[in-house]
Amino acid sequence: MRLGLLAVVAVAFLAGCGGLVGTSTETTVTPAPVPEPPATESTGSAIAPGVGGARIVDADRLARAHRAAIRERSYVWQEHQRASPAGTNESERVDTRLWVEHERRYRYELSTSWRPVNTSGYTEGETRYRRDVSRAGFTYSTAVATNATARYGHQPEVAISRYLAIGSATVAATTVDGKRYYRITGTTDSLPVTGDISNYSVEALVAPSGFVRSLSVSYEDVIGSNRERIDYRYRYSAVGETTVQPPEWVRARWPENVTTATATPTAG
Q: Where is this region: Disordered (predicted)?
């Protein structure tokens, strides 16, 4: 089985480096089609950065805008990826969860179906703490901290660039928690890196700022004589409302190094 992005994401997280949100009412937006301009940062958009009219003008620009939008914000990010050979009940998966209170206080968890190791991490101030759990037991380590967006912001950025590179799309205005969003759906027969695919569908919830609150993708990919179904989704929640507590394993091993958030935690 070719795991593609699944393996890339797992390696990135292990190296240390879905559905849609809310119930809404929506109306279809039908602005005049916008011709595709040169891909520059100054390109205007009627909907969001990189989105103009009824098409994704520049998925890379949208991805960059998303990364900028999550910087210095608190949130919970959950990502689920699965590859399933056609005609079998088997699958390979990668599940990731990231809690961010601010750029130097965050926590993540990563699990995969093909590795006997689960990885957890916690960053506070200048130190990053890590625990690997395997059949052999527990392994702990520390490293110099980096900002949350610098460390993990590339994961949704890569997914947006790849999965929303579809050109023509259906765009509908909607609201989530009283705020304006655009629900974008579409299909394609080819993806960057992957190449030709079939039965592709994508749905994303995008704010005017370029913040992609949720992304859900499914398609079939043929490798030689093997057909696989790929399912990918991520979503953000508790945006602007997330606080992070040190996990118990950090408190137990480094009690003198960590502090406790005063607000009610959403990750503990």
A: 27-47
8 Å CB contact between 91 and 81: no
Which position has the token pair 């990918």? 232
Q: How far apart are CA 60 and CA 216, in angstroms?
A: 17
DSSP, collapsed to helix, strand or coil, labels residue 194 as coil
Question: Under a CB-based contact definition with an 8 Å cutoff, are residues 41 and 61 in contact?
Answer: yes
CA 209, 214, 220 angle in degrees (round to 5)?
125
pTM, two decimal places: 0.81
Q: Report yes or no: 113 and 92 within 8 Å, Cβ to Cβ.
A: yes
76 within 8 A of 236, measured Cβ to Cβ? yes
pLDDT digits (tens, 9 = 90+) for 75-121: 999 999 999 998 788 899 999 999 999 999 999 999 998 777 799 99
Residues 6 or more apart in contact with residue 150 via CB below 8 angstroms: none
**Neighbour count for residue 48 (Cβ, 10 Å):** 25
Does residue 129 contact residue 123 with C-beta atoms inside 8 Å? yes
Ranges of H-type helices in 123-247? 148-152, 154-163
Residue 62 backbone phi and psi in degrees, to 5: -60, -40
Q: Give me the phi and psi of 119, to 5 degrees please.
A: -115, 135
Residues 259 and 16: their CA atoms lie apart, in Å, by: 22
pLDDT, one tens digit per residue, over 9-41 is 444 444 443 322 233 333 333 333 333 333 333
Where are the domains positioned within the chain? 5-17+22-253
